[in-house]
Structure formats: C-alpha cells, structure tokens
Design goal:
single chain, alpha+beta, 4-stranded antiparallel β-sheet, 11 helices, about 35% strand, globular
Length: about 625
C-alpha cells in the first residue's frame, strides 16, 4: 500500500509552458514544499539545459504564471488563501523581480496577454471598488497602469480583438439579465447590442481574423450550446457552425499563425469530442493520437511557429507526463513525469457509468473500485464479477455548476487503495449537458439535486456493488453542502460524513459572499433561493438548522481565510452538533482558504480522513 504522502505530495514538475520563440520551457516545481517557477532552455534536438529557479516563495505556492514575452514571466499568488491574487513579473535571468499589483485587499486577473503587443498585458483590478473590476493596460517594463474604462459596477467580463483592444463588455442589468455591450474602437462608448435572461448564454469566444465578426457559443433557441458565427454589432447569429446532440460546446482551437479556426471541443462522458474545420489540424491530431494509443493526449502549449508543442499525456491511472513534439519531423522527447512515484499498474480504473433518476434524467457518473474488485458492465446494468459488496465513499462535486471528469484523481486513487469504492456523479445542474439539465437544478439545493445523489447510491445498493451498511459521503464546497444535506435529510443512508469547506446555512452563505459576487446576488437568489421569497424552502434545506437529524459521525475541515464559504458556515454546524453531544471532528487551518493548498495541510487533512474512515466505515 502506497504511503498517503505519495498521493498528495507536490508534483515533481508540472504546468509546463513553452516560450513564444520555442527556446525555453517554464514549469512549476517544489521549493521548500511550495510550488515555484523554473525555466530551462531547449533546442531543436530536445536537449534540455539546466533548470533555473525564478521564484522563491515559501509561504504560499505560486498560483499561476504565463510567458509575457520571450524574456519575462508574469505570475500570481495570494495570501493565505484569501484569493486576492497579486501579479508579479521576473525576467528569465532572475532579474527585475517586481510587484505589479501588490495592493492590499485587491484582486487582480489577466484579461488578455496581448500576444502580439510586446511588453503589455490587459488586467482587471477591483482597486477602486471592491465589487467591480476595472480594465487596465499594464506596461511590464515601467509598471504603469492605464485605465481603459471605468466599470459602473455591473460589468462582469470582457472580450478583446486581435489587436488587443477592448471591444465587448458583459454586464448584469435588472439583477438577473445579461447584456452584451459593444464598440468598434476604444475611443467610442460601449453600446448595448443584446440582452438575454441569465439562463440564456451568449459568449463571444474570439473575433474572426478581420476583427469584424465573432465566434460565439450560445444556447439561444436551443438546448445544447452551439458554436456560431455572430455579428457583434447587432448580436445577430449569422451561421451555426457546430452543435452536439448531447453536450455543450466547451472550447475552440485557433491558429494565430495561420489565422484560421481549427476545431471545436466538447467534454464527453469518457473521451473528448472533437470536430475539425481544418484538415491540417485534423491530421496533426491523428498524428499525436497515434503516438499514445489508449492514453489521453492533449496539446498543453505551443510556440508561436506552431511547430514545437508540449504534449500532456495521461489516463485514469497516472498523474501524467509531458513530452516535447516537433510536428514537421515527428521528433518526440519525454520531458518529465509529474509524479514518477505513481505507477499505473498500482492504480485502479475509473469506470464511466450511468443511471436514470425517478423523474427521467440520465445521470453520467464514475465508479472506481478497490484493487482486485472487478466490475461487469452490461449496458447500464452493473454487477461485481468477484467478491462481496464493498464500502463506498460517495463524492459529489463542488460548484455546484461544475462537473466531474474521467481521469486521474489523487483522492479517488487514495481512497481505493484503502479499500473503498468511490462514486462520483454529475447530478442535475452539472455543466456541459445543456440548458434544460442546468435549469433543472435552480432552487433545488437539498431537493432534486440531492435526490440525484441519493438515487445513485440506491442504484449501487440494488446492483449489489456496495455494502448498504458502510456508505460514507464526502465533498468539498457544494459537495460539502451535499454531504451535510445527505446526513440531515437521508440520515439512515450514510454511516459517516466529511464536509470540506462546505455550506451549512443558505441564509448566512448568501450574506457572506465575496464583494465581487454582490452584483450577481439577485441571480444567485434565482439559482439558490431568495432569503425572503423562498424563506421556508431555504430554512428547510439548510443543514445547520436541522442538526438534530444527524445521527452519524462527522468530520469538518475549513480554511480560516475562505472568501467563498465563510468559516462561520462550519463553526455553526460544529456548535450545533456538539451541543447535542454528537461526535464531530473539526480541523481549521489559519493559513488556508477555500481548500488546502499547502502540502503539509493536505497531508494533515488526508491523514485525518484516513483515520476517520477507518474508524467509522472500514471497521463498521
């Protein structure tokens, strides 16, 4: 059995990116248990130079980074998990380390890396108003910030053209409607061109090469989001380019060098769905797929010539590896394994399964079983090939408007290695399945969304796969809410639960959201519930108000600096349970936010999880 630390220690090397000229690689690697930025040279033969460390963070890992140009890296970090990310820059030789947005209590984000405008990027800052982000053009050499527009308070996003000009704004109007505003030049004022209900999606992904029209995703007059060509001046849909019968369009690929739309991507149940508009792009995809049969291969990054690529290759049983690939010659070179101590033969398969709810929704899910336990799938019917029913950890995802994916999961593999099955499901509201499936989740926290989880567990029990006496539920964020709701509203289904930074009281949750979520509060009232109009429902579905129903052991973990789910969400649940004499273990980390990122805190959390499950699930 692998040590716990092997599953959750920092990757040896990860997040590789290639410089625009293709001559250097950057990556994240550990330094004093924190992930920092390193660079190394690479030549046409894929010979790697000696890595050079550019950042020396010891309190908090670098959050993200990018190549600003061939000579400079821009990176971000926050403080203690508060998610107020600051931007910094450093040159390849380690010189000119500078803070660009080190303003207390201010969050920075990158709007456009301005690939074709050397020395400048466009960023967003809520410096003037904590609830609204203003766009600035940042000069990386001088640090000068040029305000491009003053956010009136309801602007939520931006689209730039190929010249790096801000042309499109997305605004919230009347609390729940979304409006697209447009301008031809930065000298003009923005004007509204299209207003939709927040349930409807119109998202401009990219301007066409002539900066006249846009490629967009939209679910207007359809269920699944489709890729269309639109006129940004009027919001008129000119042509539908691609739509899938089951899944929403997720992203597109574009050649900056050839100025061509290459293809479109959807997330499928197990394998990605790709549609190509360009024959060369299709040929290149077939070229790299042939190199790694049976594995999942993606292009992690590409240089400006688009001849040199970084490939990320993985599966459900490996954390993945990076390869350097030269398309013209077919030269392939292994760069690094992210976790060389994880061997695929020691890991287990993630099975893509599905079940149907009592009201007719088809739910895609993932089931992973302990080593040596084999599953037989006959259509949507499951049974064990060998062995007795196993204990299971039910693991609903966070969001809730997100989704689970097929692939490697350290949590899943760790739990399976300890003798537990893991069951994950894309309950109604999970993204990528169309508008009807998403809308079916609105105001259904603790109701139909929870029923989807419950009915999935009951399906596994009927299939004879899991031991009905040994079922735990564990989740983070919304998944933490679902864990609490599970033991409140179906108290005899689970023998124990783990809530990781989860919501416990829908009233206090809606009162303590980050300031930059406040313009979306009315929208959240439509999605989650209005504290006044839906008072009875929110009271009925807030686990903290029904702690008297809980009759099983509970473990709660929380970061003190969590800006999304305030620490009070966990405090009040713990207080309510302890007042009744119910066993509850509570872990609080003062230097963490919405999830534990520091390695030593991850170790502590999963050690506690291992002990808790062994006591209350495995040895039941």
């Amino acid at each position: 059995m692998l040590p716990l630390e092997d599953f959750f220690r920092n990757s040896e090397q990860t997040a590789y990116q290639i410089s625009p000229d293709g001559r250097h690689l950057a990556f994240l690697a550990p330094y004093e248990s924190r992930m920092n930025v390193f660079v190394q040279s690479i030549d046409e033969t894929a010979h790697l130079g000696t890595p050079r460390q550019l950042t020396f963070e010891t309190a908090r890992s670098v959050g993200s980074y990018m190549w600003a140009d061939n000579d400079r890296i821009v990176f971000s970090k926050d403080e203690g998990g508060d998610e107020n990310y600051h931007l910094f820059g450093v040159r390849l030789d380690g010189s000119d380390l500078r803070a660009y947005t080190d303003f207390p209590g201010v969050r920075a984000s990158i709007i456009d890396d301005l690939e074709d405008v050397p020395g400048k990027i466009i960023i967003g800052l809520n410096r003037r108003n904590p609830e609204a982000f203003d766009p600035y053009r940042l000069d990386l050499d001088t640090g000068q910030l040029e305000l491009l527009a003053e956010n009136p308070g309801n602007w939520q996003g931006w689209t730039t053209d190929h010249e790096g000009r801000l042309r499109v704004v997305y605004a919230i109007v009347d609390g729940v409607n979304t409006q697209i505003l447009y301008r031809d030049t930065e000298d003009e004022a923005f004007r509204p061109v299209l207003t939709t209900n927040f349930k409807e999606e119109v998202s401009f992904l990219l301007f066409t090469p002539d900066n006249r029209n846009v490629w967009a995703t939209t679910n207007l007059h359809r269920d699944q989001s489709a890729l269309v060509l639109m006129d940004p001046r009027t919001g008129e849909e000119l042509e539908e380019l691609y739509a899938h019968e089951r899944y929403d369009v997720g992203s597109i690929s574009y050649s900056q060098r050839r100025k061509r739309l290459l293809g479109v991507f959807c997330t499928g149940h197990r394998t990605p769905i790709r549609h190509f508009f360009d024959e060369e792009a299709h040929r290149r995809r077939e070229q790299i797929d042939a190199l790694f049969p049976g594995l999942r291969c993606g292009v992690a990054d590409m240089d400006k010539s688009e001849d040199h690529a970084l490939l990320f290759v993985g599966s459900d049983r490996t954390r993945g590896a990076y390869y350097y690939y030269h398309f013209p010659t077919g030269r392939l070179a292994h760069i690094a394994d992210t976790a060389p101590w994880i061997l695929a033969d020691d890991m287990v398969e993630m099975h893509a399964v599905r079940y149907t709810t009592s009201d007719g929704w088809d739910i895609e899910a993932y089931l992973s079983l302990p080593k040596g336990v084999e599953l037989v799938q006959e259509g949507d019917t499951l049974r064990l090939k060998n062995g007795a029913p196993v204990p299971v950890v039910v693991n609903p995802h966070g969001g809730p408007w997100a989704r689970d994916y097929w692939g490697y999961s350290s949590e899943v593999q760790f739990l399976c290695s300890r003798g537990y099955a893991v069951f994950q499901m894309n309950f109604r509201g999970s993204t990528g399945y169309g508008r009807r499936f998403l809308e079916a989740s609105y105001k259904q926290w603790g109701l139909k969304m929870q029923d989807d989880i419950t009915e999935g567990v009951q399906w596994l029990i009927r299939s004879g796969i899991v031991d009905a006496r040994r079922i735990a539920i564990y989740g983070g964020s919304y998944g933490g809410y679902a864990a609490l709701a599970g033991i409140c509203f179906t108290p005899h289904l689970y023998c124990c639960a783990i809530d990781y930074v989860g919501v416990s009281n829908l009233f206090t949750f809606l009162q303590t959201i980050p300031p930059y979520w406040r313009p979306m509060l009315e929208m959240m009232h439509e999605q989650v519930g209005d504290p006044e109009r839906d008072h009875e429902q929110l009271a009925a579905t807030s686990p903290a108000l029904h702690a008297n129903r809980i009759c099983c052991p509970l473990f709660i973990a929380q970061g003190t600096n969590d800006p999304r789910v305030n620490k009070a969400e966990s405090d009040q649940m713990v207080e309510a349970l302890r007042a009744r004499g119910i066993a509850v273990e509570y872990m609080v980390k003062d230097n963490e936010g919405h999830g534990f990122r520091n390695e030593e805190n991850r170790f502590a959390f999963y050690r506690a999880m291992e002990r808790f499950l062994h006591q209350h699930l495995r040895t039941w």
